[in-house]
Amino acid sequence: MTTPVLEIRNLHARIEEREILKGVNLIIPPGEVHAIMGRNGSGKSTLSYVLAGKEDYEITAGEILLNGENILEMEPDERAAAGLFLAFQYPIEIPGVATMTFLKAALNAQRKARGEEELKTPDFMRMVKEAGAQLNVDSDMLKRPLNVGFSGGEKKRAEIMQMALLKPSLAVLDETDSGLDIDALQVVSKGVNSLRDGQRSMLVITHYQRLLNHIVPDVVHVFSDGRIVESGGKDLALKLEAEGYANYGGEAA
């Protein structure tokens, strides 16, 4: 039996005594794209933060296995080296650090953690050029401080470029459509789809079905009150768009 890229077993998590994740179970096989949809406050983004290792959250029960290895005891950088990538809803700005410098440092830190040699500059430049062409990221953008003064679309393209260079086994996209107009959404989605290779898995977290017109999922999960309450094919997203979340308990946000 093939080892899932991601397996979450009975995951419970809380922050400041408030339980947010209340028994999450999820399996993502290699190469599959799964979408999580749910209203505000259902716990979707908390799941992404817990996967990435954000320190504010206390795990009270359960396991998270990445390629068969429990990552809950790992630091965030160790999780990244193990193959996890989180694309933020709102990518942070880092004044004074050129985007190109950041990309090279991130890539070489990951390679070092895996016992691999650092990339030589010509090899790195070739990789960046190839990834940049795919995502409409030009050399001027790479010289600018990371995300400083970037439009919403530029921030997301820079982030998907990181993903293309780091080649994670699991990419978690937390509401990556936030703040994007339709043109930027198409560019970002094209970049994401180019990374679907039959082995890399993705978890796409979104409110809206429109993103799933561009990044078509294999499975859609409905998140409500801290857990997955229904799973189905891509048609489930269309049903949610038409009917909302009223059938899944709680009040609309």
Write the layout of secondary structure elements.
Blueprint: E1 6-15, E2 18-28, E3 33-37, H1 44-52, E4 58-66, E5 69-70, H2 76-82, E6 84-87, E7 94-98, H3 99-113, H4 121-135, H5 139-143, E8 145-146, H6 152-166, E9 170-174, H7 182-194, E10 201-206, H8 210-214, E11 219-224, E12 227-232, H9 235-243
Parallel strand pairs: 3-10, 3-11, 6-9, 9-10
Antiparallel strand pairs: 1-2, 1-4, 4-5, 7-8, 11-12
Helix pairs in contact: 2-3, 3-6, 4-6, 6-7
Task: Summarize the entry for a quick read.
With 253 residues, the chain is of the alpha/beta class. It has 9 helices and 12 strands.
**CATH homologous superfamily title of the domain at 6-96 and 168-248:** P-loop containing nucleotide triphosphate hydrolases
- Flag low-confidence runs: none
**Helix content percent band:** 25-40%
- Tell how many strands the DSSP assignment holds: 12
Mean pLDDT: 89
* Inertia-based shape: globular
- The N- and C-terminal alpha carbons lie at a distance of 41 Å
- What is the CATH first-level class name of the domain at 6-96 and 168-248? Alpha Beta
Helix/strand-derived category reads alpha/beta
